[in-house]
């Protein structure tokens, strides 16, 4: 079946001396038709420059969030209260590194390189999620991150599995499965604490008090201040607005908090029969903007640690590159030798 997608892989050069302006219009029309038909745009397809730039911006920010997000939880690996909890936490932190790698790979299909993206992160030219600029003060914070931060991430990311850009959408499928497991481990951890001693319960409540509002900020600015939402939704990169997803998250969390026996720190939180949703209090957008500007409690610590990890890992990257190079040349020599041998055998056979 001829789909709208078969048309955009050709480049102007392949099309010969045809009128370039007319071709540009045709490519754009084919791209719009593919998006409208809910087809996936793939790396070799023609796409508008602004669509490519938006994807690089969002995927890079997402990838950076995954790897910076390792830090607050890794802070507790050595102090996890049991071997079981330590093993679970190590696996989770490792998963986040894996998510970063899938996402950097997805960004690379758009013609950028991982080095370039990391350089932009390290020099402050690209963002990572505001949430990771808050400290993990107690063990209960590991639970609150799993329940609320991974929970918010899933709410935001499940619709991204239907993103119009193929490599990003496919990466999100696997990431969401893992995040869902992370969310449950956080929930189970908090439930254990909440049902434990009064001190443990208090620790769980304190963590929820500190992580609730920053988790709501993860969804981005309110719709009327979100500069990218409208265009990203037209391109079907985003499927829902920031406020829609934030509302969905609040509605999911309220009954979960009741089961946990914990209170969400918002006196204005109540069910609105008419809207069929929970009303909730005003988010402190000044705090959000300050964190984005670099003035959150841990911004400096996070980026310093990231730069240090990158510098200290230089020898690993060099060793891996040297190993790959050695194997490529060995393979080339071996393949050459095999071809020569085969040639000799052929020669013998011919003789
Ligand atoms: N933090 O016009 P919009 C995770 C920026 S992964 C920092 O609404 P957009 C896993 C935004 O970039 C968490 N910056 O933008 C995990 C833009 O600035 P720019 C990360 C924010 O793109 C769990 C400006 O504000 N998830 O947690 C934030 O349409 C546990 C205007 O905003 C993703 O990245 C923020 N919270 O919508 C790991 C999901 N919000 O770029 C470890 C993919 C907004 O013009 C442990 N991303 N900004 O300079 C998205 O869905 C979108 O990019 C939004 C923002 C929804 C974040």
From TrEMBL:
Its EC number is 1.14.13.149. Residues 323-351 are annotated as: Disordered. Residues 331-341 have a biased composition (Polar residues). Signal peptide: none annotated. One of its GO terms (cellular component) is cytosol. GO terms for biological process: phenylacetate catabolic process. One of its GO terms (molecular function) is phenylacetyl-CoA 1,2-epoxidase activity. Keywords: Oxidoreductase. It comes from the Bacteria. NCBIfam families: PA_CoA_Oxy1. PANTHER family: 1,2-PHENYLACETYL-COA EPOXIDASE, SUBUNIT A, PHENYLACETIC ACID DEGRADATION PROTEIN PAA. This is 1,2-phenylacetyl-CoA epoxidase subunit A. It comes from Streptomyces acidicola. The lineage of its organism: Bacteria, Bacillati, Actinomycetota, Actinomycetes, Kitasatosporales. The gene is paaA.
